[in-house]
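In keeping with the milestone schedule agreed at the kick-off meeting, the structural modelling team has produced records for the first pair of proteins. Each record is given below as a sequence line and a structure-token line. The laboratory manager (R.T.) confirmed that both were archived under the project's standard naming scheme.
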Amino acid sequence: MVGIIAGCTSDALVLATVLASQDPFTMPSGLLIKHPAELAERLQLSLKSRAAYDAGHYSEPLMLRNLFVDWLTEFASSVAAVRSRLARQAAVRRNRRLEMNMKMEYLRVSRDFARGHSVVAKRMVHVAMMCVDLATRLKRLLRPDSAAATSLSFFVDLLQNPTIHPPVATGASPSILGSTPSGAETTASASSSAPATRFVHSTALTYSSSAAAAAVQERFSSDVLLLKSLLVAAFAPTFI
């Protein structure tokens, strides 16, 4: 709620999710790794990954937040590439609607992500599922046309919407899934109140990997002081 009031719904969603989840970083143990050299190497990799995401702020919540934002960016980029490939298949196989298995996508992306960031893939999958659940529950409490609800809908679509539509028959491959004719788009955009028009990329459902990654990144604040203030307010006594 504090994040919604402060206008950083996306950051609040991720912070609440990671703080309620198990630490996704690897914790090498001498009970499982018998060779001292291998244990030291894995410990070093885990500590380096933690330090990189902490970025000198000495804040575990911000470290976990940065990690999951990085995962979301990679997930969006990877899923957009899969959507593009399957959309071409849907265009060839007419009258056939294709859908992705989103949980399998979680696991696939998490496995690739885990190799270079010293995290446990299954824990990243669990964080993603918790994020969807929290966004879905919180969205029910908000006005559908509010900016906060729009931000939450973005993450629900990104992490849960499996739908794939074939490209339109004009020959130009659209960057946005489920696009409407230009006239209808103009009418809809003119008549709707657009709390999310400040975003360059308004949807998570795209065929472009770069656009998908940019759509995720632009929804998060780079103001560290704001994020730290949000954490302080969240753990402070409730005065409302």
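The second protein of the pair:
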Amino acid sequence: MADKEYFNPGIVDEQVDGLLQGNATPGPEARTARELQALYQSDLQSLERVWQRLDLGTDTGFGERPWLNNVSHHDTSSPHLERFRYVQGQHTQRKGTNSRLVLTRWFGLIAAVLVAALLVGSLIAFLNITGGSHHKSTISPPPRPTAPVVNAPNLQVKTVSGVYVGDDQYLTKNDPLTGKIIWRYDIKSATGVKTEYQKVYRIVPLGNTVFVLLANILDPAGAYEQRVVALNAQTGAVFWHKSLPDREPQDMIVADGTVYVSTLVVNTPTDKSAIYALDASKGSIKKSYTFSFASITMTWYAGNLYMGTSRGLYVMNAHDGKIAWQDQINVGNPFIVTRPQIVNGVVYVAFNYTSKESGVMRSFIRAYHAQTGANLWSTNELSNQVYDMTVSNQKLYFGLMHFVDGNLHAFGGIMYAYNIQNGKPDWSREIDGNASAAPAIANGVIYAPTYSGPQGKSCTITALDASTGQLKWKKPLMFGLAINPVVVNDQVYVAVFGITSNTGKLYAYKLDGTLAWEADHTQIVSMTAVA
């Protein structure tokens, strides 16, 4: 390549000489050239020793080291420069060298390089072994890539979305766009005793796992066989399942790598309950706590469990079981507390009770500071039971029911919006039917299912403006009780179980009220979740 204008060895050699003979404070290029020179020197010393060990002659030329004596690279007649170029693998040959000698030297050089590599590698390994106990490297090796875990729960990964529906026999995952079943899990296979009635109490999709709280009801007197099952969200295969003591399931949440299950001890003269803390990755019980009240609902927040109980609101440290604070309410029985809603460090809870004076169901809502338990505000008494509620955009939404003209089978309803700053109502709106389920909120619209209606025969999914309560649209559902609706990917999903037919149906409505699809269930639907 010496005759090419774009690569002139003479110019390159001249530049290298200048870098090697530079000042005492070399620049980056000069430092690189000198480091390469030292490295080349070390390699050639090793080659010289190997050459002599192989008995290939003593005229190696390596010991002459012409580059160490500042020989000019322009002196093309120097035998030292010829040896230097020969070692670099150039095709220049010294005078008087015949082809046979050149071939012998080539093979010898190749053998020398291979043996040198082996010797250097062995030396490095020996130094690592002998010096390992005396020296720790300050540079950690890069971590090896690990294959994704598919046979164990992973709560951080994302999984293809689906609509999960639990009924009396199966837990199914439906395609959110078409309603078609992706997989189906027979809940009878998770329980040891086979009965005619099983129930899914709670579904919690998280990461690549679907956690399911279910039970066999063994007899009408209230004997239960309950289990928690962790399923692969992609396939429906079982990661693990865990039997719990024979108590009535109440609630389940998953937080901080732990599955918390609240259960009620039945057939006792006083309320008793227990909470079990299970390892989410393998299902083993880490801790359990017992109480002399009924723990009905739970919410996890900042290391605490906020429990709606038969005595009021109790807050328990999730790590040691100690009660952080409580608000006991004694206004009447039966006493029901909704699931605590926690937003921006404030807890919102509805308390439901039977009035001692009138015997009629009443309720009120309170707001607390989540850490201290300080009461921030309380609503006036409400005329009926608050079954559930939703907090969104500085408002608290819930529905109440009332009988129509004294007809015990015809219900009307009222949807309320309360200001979460002071607990005062912003607006209320009459709707056709009992609005007992917690409404779903999306894009400034409330989606609430209703039951019964003025004639006692109709059910709807109703859309209201979240700011004013004005009706946007309402669409029919099969006659029955609706599970809390969920809005995901611009669709409203709501499941209904029929009261007279013992069947169920799952609906998907677009946000404008257009029916996207519906899917029939041959069993009574008891729980849904979308993730």
